[in-house]
């Protein structure tokens, strides 16, 4: 981060970046808790995950207020402006990650302990591990201003998409083999879609980190390999 003659300005920028890092840590924890609640059918953890999302919303609002204050008072340009714009955009992505974790927790409550397809649930766990590793890597890239690491995160989005497509087909097979599993497999399908979208938000953050550091856009279009035909499932 650049140094200025006005030390309070530097402090404001550091505080903004710190809030984004705090949001990142909380968003990671919410996703992890939601998936853990799914696998263990822990309804209490699911309820706590839903409640904790409110803190993520508060942080996003704090960042937005700081963003407006800095722009109004400091009139940033160049690298400073990119830092501030990136903070605002990343905060929005992290707020959405929290919403998606909350959606998974709601599915846990809807399943209400009646999860018999443990094998399918483990597929969701594997997918969430990859999405969380992507989220952690891109937040590290943001903190360290590492454009190459951010670009690597963007290029790995295909892996999350591929697992989602595979899991989608697996869950459909379970449903066709045993109609009694249709309800719980449908819930798992929504959970998997939420995790796939968390991977997309990690990729959005990667693109913003790259621009923040280099001042350049990643021009090559992001390749999506969602072959399910359900690219925009509405979340409950």
TrEMBL record:
Keyword field contains Disulfide bond: no
Ranges in a coiled coil: none
Pfam families: PhoU
Gene Ontology CC terms, in alphabetical order: cytoplasm
Keywords: Cytoplasm, Phosphate transport, Transport
Keyword Cytoplasm recorded: yes
Domain PhoU: residue ranges: 21-108, 124-209
Gene Ontology biological process terms from the UniProt entry: intracellular phosphate ion homeostasis; negative regulation of phosphate metabolic process; phosphate ion transport
Entry-linked Gene3D superfamilies: Phosphate transport system protein phou homolog 2, domain 2 (1.20.58.220)
InterPro entries linked: PhoU, PhoU-like_sf, PhoU_dom
Subcellular localization, as worded in the UniProt entry: Cytoplasm
NCBIfam families reported in the protein's UniProt record: phoU_full (TIGR02135)
Function per UniProt: Plays a role in the regulation of phosphate uptake.
Family per similarity comment: Belongs to the PhoU family.
Subunit structure: Homodimer.
Protein name: Phosphate-specific transport system accessory protein PhoU
Organism for this UniProt entry: Pannonibacter tanglangensis
Gene: phoU
């Amino acid at each position: 981060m650049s140094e200025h003659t006005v030390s309070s300005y530097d402090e404001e920028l550091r505080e903004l970046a710190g809030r984004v890092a705090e949001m990142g840590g909380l968003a990671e924890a919410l996703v992890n808790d939601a998936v853990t609640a799914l696998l263990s059918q822990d309804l209490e953890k699911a309820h706590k995950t839903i409640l904790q999302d409110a803190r993520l919303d508060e942080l996003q609002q704090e960042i937005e207020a700081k963003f407006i204050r800095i722009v109004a008072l400091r009139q940033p340009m160049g690298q400073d402006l990119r830092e501030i714009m990136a903070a605002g955009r990343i905060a929005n992505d992290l707020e959405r990650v929290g919403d998606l974790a909350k959606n998974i927790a709601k599915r846990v409550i809807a399943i209400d302990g009646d999860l018999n397809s443990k094998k399918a649930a483990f597929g969701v766990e594997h997918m969430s591990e990859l999405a969380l590793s992507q989220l952690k890597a891109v937040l590290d890239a943001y903190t360290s201003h590492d454009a190459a690491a951010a670009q690597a995160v963007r290029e790995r989005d295909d892996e999350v998409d591929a697992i989602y497509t595979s899991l989608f087909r697996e869950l459909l097979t379970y449903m066709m083999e045993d109609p009694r599993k249709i309800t719980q497999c449908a819930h798992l399908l929504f959970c998997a879609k939420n995790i796939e979208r968390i991977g997309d938000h990690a990729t959005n953050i990667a693109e913003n980190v790259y621009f923040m550091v280099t001042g350049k856009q990643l021009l090559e279009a992001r390749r999506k390999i969602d072959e399910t035909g359900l690219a925009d499932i509405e979340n409950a």
